[in-house]
Amino acid sequence: MAIKKKTTKKKVTKKKVTRKKAPVKKTTRKKTTRKAPAKRVNYTPAIVNRLCDWLISGKSLRSFCSKTGTPSKSTVMRWLLKFEDFRDQYAIARTMQAETHVDEMIEIADTECKQPIVHEGKAVEVNGKILMTVTSAGVSHARLRIETRKWVAVKMAPKKYGEQEKHVIKSPEGTGVLKIPTIATMDEWDKMNDENNADLLEKEKVYKVDE
Predict the structure, then answer these.
(1) What is the pLDDT of residues 2-59, one digit of tens each?
(2) H helices within 29-83, ranges in order?
(3) Cα 205 to the center of its chain, rounded Å
(4) Plot region of 161 (φ>0 → left; ψ -120 to 50 → alpha; else → beta)
């Protein structure tokens, strides 16, 4: 008899395939920056005096409005339209500011335009003191500062610091020079016109009598 051999079936183990999960993107919410609330400053004599003192010292309106506890520039413009007393005080402060700019021009012109001596990007020091010298760049900067203040002073006080134009007119006796300011009111123009007409009439009378 033939003996049957027992056949053992091998168990096939399937390998588990692990799929890699796609990385989850983290959604970051953008931080919303809140706008700073508009400055609310009430109109008071104290804030007006601070503003005028600031202008008289030679500083700008923009630098004053950028400080904390002060009104914005648009608020100051609205105050000028609304309050007549503030308009007068503001105009006086601007005129006095021109005087400050003139004084600053004299100080800038009298002081030497020195700048530190620089070697390899560092200021040269001797015995703890920085060596200074006069340079063309310093002179140009001083000239620019003077010209800027001069232009502002002429615009703020044209009657005092503005240049006057001279016009030559003809009269029966010859030629004369008539000084006319660059900026004048209607009353000033009428007054000058009346004075000039009166002078011409008198000269014409004299001229006719001599004939």
Answers:
(1) 555 555 555 556 666 666 666 666 666 666 666 555 567 889 999 999 999 999 999 9
(2) 45-56, 61-65, 73-82
(3) 56
(4) alpha
> What six digits make up the tokens of 109?
């012109």
Structure tokens at 181: 């300011």
Q: Alpha-carbon torsion 84, 86, 88, 91, what sign?
A: negative
Q: Is the pTM of this model over 0.70?
A: no
Cα-based angle 136, 137, 138 (whole degrees, multiple of 5): 90
Specify the residue for token string 């309050």.
83
Q: What is the phi/psi pair of residue 96, to 5°?
A: -70, -25
Using CA atoms, how far apart are residues 116 and 123, in angstroms rounded to an integer? 6
Give buried/exposed letters for 170-179 (b at 16+ CB in 10 A, else e).
Answer: eeeeeeeeee
